[in-house]
Each structure stands twice: as C-alpha cells, then as structure tokens.
Design goal:
Length: 436
Amino acid sequence: MVSIRSPPEWGIEPIQSKYRSVTGRSYFILWSSLGVGLLVFSAGSLLTGAKFSDAILAIIIGSLVGSLLLAVAGKIGSDHAVPSLVSMRPSFGVRGSYLPAILNIIQLIGWTTFEIMIMSKASEMLVGNHIPYYIWTIMIGAFVILLGIVGPLTVLRQWLEKFAIWIVYASSTLIIINLLMSGTVSKLILSASGTASGLSFFSALDIVIAMPISWMPLVSDYNRFAKNSRGSFFGTFVGFAITNILFYFGGLILGVSDVIGVVAAIQSIFFGLILLMFILHETSNAFADVYSAAVSTQSIYHKIKQRYLIIGFTVLSIVLAIIVPISQYETFLLLIGAVFVPLFGIVISDYYIVKDRHYETKLMYGSSALSIGFPAIIAWSFGVLIYYLFSSISPIYISQWPQIGSTIPSFIGSSLLYLGIMKINSIGYLTKIIKG
C-alpha cells in the first residue's frame, strides 16, 4: 500500500530548527524569480515621464534601497523563524497587527487577481482566442491552488529550482538583449538632457521602490525557513535587486504602460515563445501572493486550515479577474507604498534599535504579548499622512512643497516619531522606578 500524506501546514508558529534548511543560494533563486514579472515591465514604463538620466538613477537607487529594506525586514523572520505579520507584534501588538494583516490580505488578493488576469489574457492571445478567457482563469487558478497547497518548500525545491528559474533567466536574457538591440535605448539617451513630461526623480524613485516594498509584508513568510540569516539576507538583497533593475529598465525601454499592451508587444517580438515562458513563471508570483494571504489571515484566525484559505482566496481572485478590468496600476502601487513604507519603518526601527535585534517569543505569542502598541499605531498614522502630503496621487497633496517624493519622508518620519515616543516612554518608566 502507498500512503499519501498531506503536505505540512506551517501556520504562524516558529519553524522548528530541523525544517530550517533553505540556503542563501535558494533565496537568491526565490527572490530573483519573484522580482520578475510582466507587471514590473508595466511599472517600468511609467518612468518614461521622467528624463532618461533621472529614470536610470531612480531604477538603480530605488532597486538597491528597496531590496535592502526587503532583506532587512526578512532578516527578522530568519532570525526568529516567524512570518511577517508575527514579526510586527512586538511593536504593534497582537491586536494592533490585525489592521496591517487585513490591509495585506487586501493587497495580496489584488496582486493575485492581477497575476491571474494577465496570465489568462496572455494565454488567450497565445492560442488565438480559441479558448475563452474565463476558461484560462479557472485552469490557471487551479494550478495556483495546487502550488499553494503543496507549500513553499516544495514550490522552491521542485518547481523554482528545477524548472521555473531557468525559464526566468532564459526569457529575461532574450527580452533584454532584444530591447537593447532595438535602437530605443539610443533615442532615450539622446533625450536625456531634454525636458521631461512632469515626472521628477523622486516621483520615479517612489514608483521603483514600491515594487520591493510590496513584498515586505510577505518576505518573512518564506525567509523564516532559512538555514542561517546571513545567507537569506544576501540572497534576498542581491536576487531581488538584480531582476528589479533589469525589468524596470526593460519596461522603460519598452514604454508600454498598459499591461495587456506589454503582453502583446512581447508576443509580437518573440512569436509567443517567451510569452509562454512568462505565463509558466508568473504562477510562482501568484502562488506567493495567495499563500501569504493565507498566512496573514491565520495571524488573526489561527485555527482556519491553510488549504481552505488558499482555495477560497484563489477562487475569489478568479472571480475578480473575470469581472474587474485592469486600471490605475500606478495608483495601486503608490497606495501600497503609502501603507507599508511607514509601517516597516517602525518595525525595522523597533527590531534593530529599540529591541537591539532580539525578540523574545513571549513578545509575539501568548497572553503576555502586547495587545495594542499605541506608539506604533500613532507613528504609522503619522507616516501615512506624510506619504499622502508628498504624493501626487493624494487629494491632500501639497504641490507647493519641495519635490522630494513621499517614500523617504514617510519612512524617516514614522521611524523618528516611533523612536522618540519609545525614548520618552523609557524615561518615564525609569522615573517611576526611581521615585519608588
């Protein structure tokens, strides 16, 4: 008799040491893969409103800074073997982390919907519209469910390392080489000193940083399996930075902001071969989104089975992919930044400065864990406000203010306010001890 075992559900508890076996090389593969996507091409094309020199500088600096923040956030998970939403609890509290969890679930359903929509549209175009779009959404969604149920370790070792990553490298190389030979680059360089159509360097920087920032609420869901934190840190940083730079640059050259237009452009250039490879690869991104949506939900309702959440979220994304059109992609990216840039400014400050890189288990689990971290909530609200004051997408945007973007002020503002409140709290606590 052959016994069939269900794959393990890791939940939100710390990963046991015997399962922490993922190396830095594997994290390089994982995050270089997740840094690739048709959506990144579309985001890169949004930079065409800036001068070419500003756009290139924003791509390099934004990718390096964003990937560094991603790796720094992931190190909290690899240090303590906990998922991302649990790593927020020492600063935000258990109940205080529920709002970030809900917002993360919303954005991940949005990303999953985008991914299924793009893969389905691309598949429909690839077969000449002979198979209806909604059929593709169901088939692709079913495969995403399968990946989600087998779990991150199986997907990494059996799908990404042995198959999908080679698709990524081959297709990426062919696309970038073709774009470089197209002659578009020389035209963009010649216009580098010309007048841009309104996008400043810092606004371009916000768009580039938004992509790695969007992965920060997920990063520890996967980096918690690390064999050692050093390997996961460098694998995450280098892997994501390289592909983010390449694909934003590719999107800038391609200059097609509509995601479906990107699909059509790639199909016309490569006669569908690269498009097929991208469709196969994009399932990895959709898996990561829907799996982490399940983990984030379990941080609130920990008794719900992971597989049921994965199935439910994927079905919801399939329905949304059928009925909701793609629009306002730039706004979606910047709204993500408005929420998670200041949030992780607080989490990183708390871990690396306030708690000196040490979280005790009791700070994250059990009755002794903090319920609501009001200093973190206050500082987060302040950071989101700063983001909207400096972001052109906001109805309360102050156009007369210096054009310094919204990412840097929001991150620094929330961090400094949180550190200031915690410093005052510690002084007040010490004063009470001295007075008896």
